[in-house]
Design brief:
The protein is built from 12 helices and 12 strands. By secondary structure, it is α/β, with parallel strands linked by helices. A 6-stranded parallel β-sheet has the order 2-1-3-4-5-11, sandwiched between helices. The chain has a 6-stranded mixed β-sheet with strand order 7-6-8-9-10-12, sandwiched between helices.
């Protein structure tokens, strides 16, 4: 079915139908819903080129992925975020453009996008402390949403984030309530803003009890299974070994579990582990009680919500910046228990 035929069935002009389908705010909401329902009923899909010509938009969202140095996004979590975002883009008739570039080329790619108008908006990944991309994108006039936040950034901008500080504060409080006092934190790269917030939550929970965490029990690196294994193995071999670990991802926690079992110890009895679980859509434990105690947050849902936020901004760029803070859910599993007796 063509736009002309759909318009005739509805008794509306082609311009009104086109603007309703493309999210223009000047279309009455009742009319918009009537048009959308008719489009679904008749399986109407506007021609991509026609939509670009009608809207003056590229009908594409850009994701720029720097690859030349360490980045926390290069793991299965990133794939799930992209899946969630991709679902939202497809539903709205948008394409996704992934640009894999070296760190030194990232700013150039943003400038090229602004100059050529190949994309209508940008999703910013893995914000770092002191990140310069926000100021650059604002100068270029490109709509964008940051997945995460930049603590030191004073300008107002749109972002969607998980409350990492509170999640790790609650994880630490749980272990302290169980009697643990030597709690190791296996964090992500602390140049990343989320990791800085996680460490802050861990430290605040200790300070609230009049305790000072041992600096020797705090580690920071890329979030891999090998990092979790080697770091836990080294710490457990110490004379002042931890009785509990907080892992900044499920991937790290799997490595920690391997190190615990290799020493003939039992996770949940001899050593407790709390993980931040990004609730990957393809990585579920079927048990009634989950294996890991975790602070859970769906990264796929985050991708979908961030994409919907960005599409709303593209449709109405004059609106004020939007922010949304998601809370992680603390789920108690089999990996935690009381601190072992020292008597």
């Amino acid at each position: 079915m063509k736009l002309k035929e759909l318009s005739a069935k509805l008794g509306l002009s082609q311009t009104t139908v086109s603007r309703a389908l493309n999210g223009y705010p000047d279309v009455n909401e009742d009319t918009r819903q009537r048009v959308l329902e008719a489009a679904r009923l008749h399986d109407y899909r506007p021609d991509a080129l026609a939509r670009r010509l009608a809207t003056g938009r590229a009908m594409a969202i850009g994701h720029v992925i720097p690859t030349s140095t360490k980045h926390e996004m290069v793991n299965p979590v990133f794939a799930d975020f992209i899946a969630g975002a991709g679902e939202a883009y497809a539903k709205a008739g948008y394409d996704m453009i992934l640009s894999m570039v070296g760190d030194a080329d990232e700013a150039r790619v943003y400038r090229d996008f602004a100059k050529t108008r190949r994309v209508d908006g940008i999703m910013v990944h893995a914000p770092r402390t002191g990140d310069t991309r926000i100021a650059l994108l604002q100068d270029l006039g490109l709509p964008f949403v940051v997945h995460g936040r930049v603590s030191a950034e004073e300008a107002s901008y749109s972002w969607l984030d998980v409350n990492n500080r509170r999640a790790f504060q609650r994880a630490t409080e749980l272990l302290l309530d169980l009697g643990h006092r030597r709690i190791a934190l296996l964090n992500g790269l602390e140049e990343m803003d989320f990791a800085m917030r996680r460490r802050a939550g861990y430290q605040e929970a200790h300070e609230a009890r009049g305790l000072k965490p041992d600096a020797a029990l705090i580690a920071s690196d890329e979030m891999t299974e090998q990092y979790g294994y080697h770091t836990a193995h080294r710490m457990l071999a110490s004379d002042a070994a931890p009785t509990a670990f907080i892992a900044s991802s499920m991937i790290i926690a799997i490595g920690v579990r391997r190190a615990i079992e290799e020493r003939g110890l039992q996770m949940g009895r001899d050593i407790s582990v709390v993980s931040h679980d990004d609730a990957l859509s393809y990585f579920h434990t079927p048990d009634t009680v989950p294996i890991f105690t975790s602070t859970r947050s769906s990264v796929r849902e985050a991708g979908q919500l961030a994409a919907e936020m960005l599409l709303d901004i593209v449709a109405a760029p004059e609106t004020a910046p939007r922010q949304r803070l998601l809370e992680a859910i603390l789920t108690v599993g089999q990996s935690t228990g009381p601190a072992p007796s020292t008597g």
